Amino acid sequence: MNLSDKQFEMYSRQIKMKEIGEEGQIKLAESSVLIIGCGGLGSAVLYYLTAMGVGHLCLCDNDTVALSNLNRQILYTYDDIGKPKVNIARERLNALNPGLKITLYDKPMDEMLAKKIIKDYDIIIECLDNFETRFIVNDICISSGKPLIHAGAEEFGGQMMMIIPGRGPCLQCLFPGGVNEKGLDVSSDTDINSEGSKKTFGVIGTTPGFMGILQATEAAKYLLGLQTYSNGLVTFDALTLCLDKVEIIPAADCICRNPV
What we know:
This protein has helices at about 5-10, 10-15, 20-30, 40-50, 85-95, 110-115, 130-145, 170-175, 205-225; strands at about 30-35, 55-60, 100-105, 125, 150-155, 155-165, 190, 200, 230-235, 240-245. With about 260 residues, it is an alpha/beta fold.
């Protein structure tokens, strides 16, 4: 494909970069990304992938906008309360970039849907609020050979993990006990406690935004063929302004070592 005059102007600051250039901008335009969850993390991911010129975004979320979302979910406004997030997100993203292709799934991600659609996208970005679904997405990304970027945010802190099948650790390596070991998890909105019920976390609005921007940046780097960090967790503490890398050794018996 060739970039139009409008695309050259819109992405001129990126095209000036030696790591991107015209060739890289075309790569982004020809890329497809599946974003699972359109909340605090997902809002930032979606906005910046759209602004950077990724050509095809798939949005999966069955939630509606609530008043309590508005401190961190930047795609939505007071007038959107009660409306499906994916529909409002598509409207806002198309207003920012009319040339964007958007596919919507206004339904929860489950194993059947994950198996159906994950294989069709270049990279998967997980912006979920429960660990059970995270493990489903993790395992199917690995079996499909698709890279996955996980993140979560709570209060003033967050974590991100780039998972590349066959190259580094995955969520099963981080939590070998499965869902029952989610005490270390941080989440953008809610999570499932050990009794199976939901609990709500406090979160300042900027934390999921920051982590979502990191996810979008890593996704763009991967799509451009630049080096990404896939050896473990990246953690962030806004109170101390510390951004750290925590190396994780892949478990000897984990499927991520030998993806199907």
